[in-house]
Amino acid sequence: MKEHFRDKWQYYTGGLIILIIILFEAQGKGDFDIFLSASRDLLLGKNIYTIQYHEWYHYYYDIFFAIALVPLTYLPLYFAKLIWLILNVFFVIRLWKIILCWLPLSYLRKSSVMVFKILSFVFILRFLRDNFHLAQVTIFILYLTFEGLFLINSNRRIAGSLLIALGIDVKLLPIVIIPYLIFRNEWKSALYILGFILVLICLPIVFIGFDYNKFLLAERWNLINPMNQVHILDTSERSFHSLTTLLSTLLVKDCGDYYALPLKRNIADVSIETLNIVINIVRGALILFTLYFLRTKPFTKITDNFQRLYELSYLCIVIPLIFPHQQHYAFFFIFPATTYLLFYLADKYFNKENYLSIKHFKIKKITFLVLMSIVYFLTNSHFILGEFTNYYDHYKTLSYGALILIILLAICKPDKLTHT
What we know:
0% strand, mainly alpha, 21 helices
């Protein structure tokens, strides 16, 4: 009875804190104002992909998303943003439930479960803050991806495929899920997703006509085409973090970063053509490295949810790294990976009696803890010591944090836990 009361009290307290946060965050404009502005301009027949909103920023998302937001354009910005933030709270809760569903939590000590859950959110607190502050779509995209996969694995392929297709249509990031599903012998789901993407591309014709839709599709591709030089030398904004940005700062002396600090960071000075080759080689290597995490022959289905989470954790880390023009909030995609690793840490090293005794502090355990601490600082440094933000962005520390996360994930394979 006491535990039940304590749990309810925790939920009510957490709900109140979240409500206060979103009521506060709904006051600013953020990126949601850009989405709504593009939605209004769409109704006026403008080219929403060439207009620079707030003087600097483009609208990169799909036409259907702009149409879907039309009803919110009739509300004051505060209430429109408040509705979006409330929806994002739901997305986070549902995403968290799916991840927990794929973890064998019953193997953890009761005393470890609450600590594990708290640390899981501590690790991504910075990205939650950023996404809520800017009212971005990253949480929405990751939710659609995991909810879609959850439905597909529950034999509700059409509903699941529609959600993933919507995520890809809004923002291309989850497109890596299509080859993953093919590898896992989910051909029907992959085909459904492709079909739904085509439908979502053509659906705006009903509202804006064939010619305007065709024109906007071409304009959007001109904006997001990864072969554009602006996406190769991806340094037009200091806050960009991805492989393209990291390699540009390391391999090109004058990389076009107007906000760079007068501190050396490049280790070479190559041509744009060479940089493009290096970027694509590293991208290809990360994509190929996916096979290490899949660990089965192609076209093989799996039933182990823990292994599934392991595979998806890697894919989610890779997504913001291989795509250009990624802001810090896109790294909310590391949420599955950090949660998986914290569970691994709790199960392997803190799931025994007297786990704090000296004899249990072996080299592997200490190394793991040190690396996880480094990852936490590199990914949350803006949140912890914000006064040095310019230095973090100058040296792209967030990207290094994601790369160390890949190393940890590669080491912490599911079969190293005894119960798996």
